Amino acid sequence: AQIRGIEEVSEEHIRLINLASLELTESKCLIMINHLSYDKCNVELAEMYSKYKFQAVIVDHSCSLEDSPNAKYKNDEDRVKDLAVNLRKFKKKFPVCVMVDSHLSSAAQAELEKFINSNSIATNRQGAKSSPTRSSGVLSEEADEIFVLYNTDLLTKQSLIGIQVFKRRIYTAPRYHIYLKVNYPGLLFEYRD
User: Fold this and answer.
1) Taking the complete model, does pTM exceed 0.85, yes or no?
2) Which has the closest alpha carbon to 193: 117, 108, 130?
């Protein structure tokens, strides 16, 4: 398991983490792969689905994607656009929940920082307004739901993390933010640009 702050976790908790990781991987409840291709991820995921019949996939678009040998992208925007289109194709064919982790766009980052530094956090309104996904708005357009995680000094002191529901396709996004309690040893929510 890759856990930030593992050196601060007790031996007993480390044994539990290792046991859980082993059980998840041996039972095929958790399958980790090194990377997918921007331009072929729908085909790669379809091959994996035929073998494992998974119910959800989480793609970290900052770290787990690469260009296939024949891909000729001019920039990151083209890569992320291809990713969004390919994930949509996969989702339409298979009954799988697709989640994509992304860093915030520069505009959304600035808006969120303004929100955090203002008194808006006390009234629990607004937050990021611009397309939150970095490199391309297409990923945001294709998404059914978008959640923006954030942290402040005040939230950290209370062992909380904030979640802005940025978009819901079928339902109206709630007006107020959601706060989750962080109380697991060795678990760290960290927001970085």
Assistant:
1) no
2) 108
3-state SS of the chain: helix, strand, coil percent to 5?
Answer: 40, 20, 45
Q: pLDDT tier at 105 (50, 70, 90 boundaries)?
A: confident
Residue 4: both structure tokens together:
């930030």
- What is the crossing angle of helices 41-52 and 76-93, to 10°? 30
Strands (E), 151-188: 160-168, 178-181
Q: Rounded to an integer, what distance in angstroms lies between the CA atom of residue 39 and that of residue 37? A: 5
- Contact by Cβ (8 Å): 37, 58: no
Which residue bears the tokens 């891909």? Answer: 71
Cβ–Cβ under 8 Å, residues 73 and 82 = yes
Q: In angstroms, what CA-CA distances link 104 with 108, 111, 113, 137?
A: 6, 10, 11, 11
Are 133 and 102 contacting, i.e. CB atoms less than 8 angstroms apart?
yes
Residue with tokens 């920082």: 113
β-strand partners of 101: 60
Q: Which amino acid is at 109?
A: Q
Is the per-residue pLDDT at 8 higher than 60? yes
